[in-house]
Amino acid sequence: MIVLRRVLRSEKSGRWSGLARDFAALISAVLLALLCLVPQPGFAWEHWGGDQGGTRFSKLDQITPANVGRLVRAFEFRTGDLDRRPPAVMARTKFEATALFVEDSLIFCTPFNEVIALDPGTGAPKWRYDPKVSESQRPANRYVCRGVTYWVDDQASEGAVCHSRIFMGTNDVRLIALDARTGVPCADFGTHGEVKIQTGKELMWPGEFQITSAPVVSRGVVVVGSSISDNARVDAPDGTVRAFDARTGRPRWSFDPLRHDGISAGQSNVWAPMSADDARGLVFLPTTSPSPDFWGGQRPGNNEHANSVVALRTETGELVWSFQTVHHDVWDYDLPAQPTLTRIDTGEGMRDVVIQPTKQGFVFVLDRDTGKPVWPVEERSVPQNGAEGEQLSPTQPFPTHVPALMPQRFSLDDVFKFPPVVGSPSCDALLSTARNDGLYTPPSTQGTVVFPFTGGGVNWGGAAFDPIHQILYANISRAVQVIKLVPRTEAEGYKPPPGIELGPQRGAPFAMTRQVAISRLGLLCNRPPWGEMVAVDLKAGKILWRSAVGTTEDRTPLGLAFKWGMPLVNGVAITAGGLVFTGAMDAYLRAFNASSGEELWQGRLPVPGVANPMTYLWKGEQYVVIAAGGHSEGGTTIGDSMVAFRLARPDEAPSLWSRTIDRPGGRFTSGAIAAVLLAVVLVAGALWRRRRRMRLRARRQALREAASR
Question: Does the reported pTM lie above 0.85?
């Protein structure tokens, strides 16, 4: 279809005869009709990351830089959470789901693990399943469900119940299997369609342990990770990765990413999305730092296989290879992003690789079969002299070919001097006394500057890869944190001020406090941009462009839309049409030119869409969809919407409102214009009344003078 469309474009220059043009048009129409009847895998979105390898690339090219301005809202579906759940509960939600387009349905999960299927053209609900997650759980990482997983059982007959399945992990630690066409639990999976995960250790509270990212399914095995409260205690629950038979729910294998020999620590878990390679029979895990995050004196050594990309045999759990990106992590620099599986041109031929972006802004490119770096990775000396009892690694790995996606050093010269004349005394006071020796400065009792901060760099949104143009795209955040170790004797009974997080790190000699460096005006202490999209040529090893993403419109009085970029934990979706779509911390879905980074279009959302967008083809029309529910940790407005856009049909056009008011700064500009017009009217009215009074006085004076004569 795409090839034919390109042929038709080229024939307009006169290279094809009229007969060939008519024939090609006929074939194109026939194929389009067939595609409308039977959606093809290339035009669907069957995995959380678009495909098993998480490239987040779609072959669709209907929406282009030339026509993206004609996008209109196709539908908005509200889950109902905002209306039926208490505000205090909704204040602990993050709607980060990426919908799947499978079985002629748009299927996604809510922060409370309800699974909903929508008509892909109208947004009308088709079915929904509610696992009844408790509203009193208080999960450590908020109520969140990043996605569900789709799998077709090739051993079941086409019309059988649960021939195709939806898998989901829940906030209350269940693995659930549903019929993808009806939402009915698969009775042959576990007990009545679910398996209760055994945490292996008594939890401090029900929300200490949860599942936040979608499982992966490959070769009849479903693999699920976990999310565990980071800094509650040294002896946290183990971060075991678990695998189950996708048909029966019976346990297949388990893998603990942390070798516990001679160390005292609980989890190194896998909370981020995983990837799978069906052909090789491998599953790829992005593992986290061990507990606790900021002091590791009881876990000497590099803590293998924490902070690593780990490849396991899907069917057995056997370790194939592991590559560590941080040794003995005490900065919470775990791997937050799905490993991207693709094929790249290295300059010495094509090669199957794993691309792993990190919170520090590094991009590691590894051979998919061996885990060896495709380009050299150097061990470089890093700052030492950690806290008492600490045993730091003297070196850390640095990629040498692909440049870091962001700066990795912060100095007082980088403080955001706003207002320009006054500067930012509160930022200077906070940052000037903290230890700051650059990347990997160890946490300290005096306070340590951590930049990039523990939210990234790159976060769970991950990277996207265009296999045609061989370009990697990723969203990054730029923010500074101050981490401080608090001696145990001072930590007992300590109540941190607002804006400062306390991690007790029970079992360690130090608790910790963590705060994002923010001025009294509520602005980040570092200079903007605070959120960027970056495009990278991996083969050449160079940044092609970077663009600020997001404005301050939804965070400042009067809707002032400074284009300073906003922190970005979510990722992007790219298309063969030459566009990159992303949400942000302000309430817009955006489209960027994939070649230049130019921001081409913004679609207004009810609240910020802090989720990964996706795209699909339905009845000949390409749709772009994003969850718009806000982000409680980001301080945004909270919502519960799934919003879709498509190109305007022949009888439609983008509204004047969407082209003017519903644009960043549009509300402020319209408000300012209205205020000016009102002021003009008021001044004109006052002048008219004054002139009228003067005329009346003059007339009365004339009458008095006439009467006196």
Answer: yes
